[in-house]
Amino acid sequence: MAEFMQNSTTNDTRRGSMESVCYHSGSCTLREVRMSKRSNRNSGCLMALFGIFLGRTKGDQSHTNGMWPYKTRDGFLTSAELSFYGVLTSTIGSRATICPKVGLRDLFWVAASQDYQAHWNRISQKHVDFLLCHPQTMQPLLAIELDDSSHSSPRRQHRDADVDHIFEAAGLPLVRVPTQRSYQTQDLSTGLNPYLNNLPAVSTPTPVVPEMRRSHGDPRS
């Protein structure tokens, strides 16, 4: 019997199981049981932590394989914006470059101020419907906002007042155009011409052509 227990103890020891050794040997102590449970608990925590890292790794791999949940919009502009864009293009011609949906955070910057974060928050999540820029330098000249029925709500009016103050502080003109089923090109041209007729002059630099070096023995030298 003792030999059987010894053989069993030896086999279980090879398996590395403290609880099995205690069971077959009959010499189980409370300290050994606690050590075994603590070991299992620690190994379980390590495996759980390792599993988290494995999960992140698998997630990262799936994202790099094109699994990010992004889709391309069917239309970049709404129907009202697209209709106005066509009229605006024919109105200004090549006098300015039209940039739709420009974020205010890309258009303005906040000067040093004690309330820097508050001023930054005012522009970080807002955009303007159309921005007209100089065709050569892309210097901002004029912004245009289309005002539909949603602009009559108190919340939107408060937002519009903030936008008006931002443009006024930066010294950039902002023109608000009520949305309509059709637009008169002449009326739109009359409202925009004061900002487009006096564009800043741009000096075109003279291209420098490097002199070609001729090799020795060239009959043209």
Silhouette: globular
Q: How many β-strand stretches?
A: 4
Named CATH architecture of the largest domain = Alpha-Beta Complex
Beta-strand residue fraction: 5-15%
* Low-pLDDT ranges: 2-6, 12-37, 48-55
The tally of structural domains comes to 2
Structural class: alpha+beta
N-to-C order of helices and strands: HHHHEHHEEHEH
Question: Which sheet architecture does the biggest sheet show?
Answer: 4 strands, mixed
**What spatial order of strands do you see in the largest sheet?**
1-2-3-4
Q: What is the top-level CATH class of the largest domain? A: Alpha Beta
Instruction: Quote the distance from N terminus to C terminus.
Output: 112 Å
The tally of helices reads: 8
The gyration radius over C-alpha positions equals 37 Å
- Mean pLDDT comes to 75
Helix content: 40-55%
CATH topology grouping of the largest domain: tt1808, chain A
Summarize this structure briefly.
The longest helix has 38 residues, at 30-67.
What this model shows, in words?
With 221 residues, the chain is an alpha+beta fold. It folds into 2 domains: 2-62; 79-195, tt1808, chain A, CATH 3.90.1570. It has 8 helices and 4 strands. Strands 1-2-3-4 form a 4-stranded mixed sheet, with helices on both faces. Helix 1 (2-15) runs antiparallel to helix 2. The N and C termini lie far apart (112 Å).
Could you give the topology of this structure?
Blueprint: H1 2-15, H2 18-25, H3 30-67, H4 79-92, E1 97-103, H5 104-107, H6 116-124, E2 127-133, E3 140-147, H7 154-170, E4 174-178, H8 185-196
Parallel strand pairs: 3-4
Antiparallel strand pairs: 1-2, 2-3
Helix pairs in contact: 1-2, 4-8
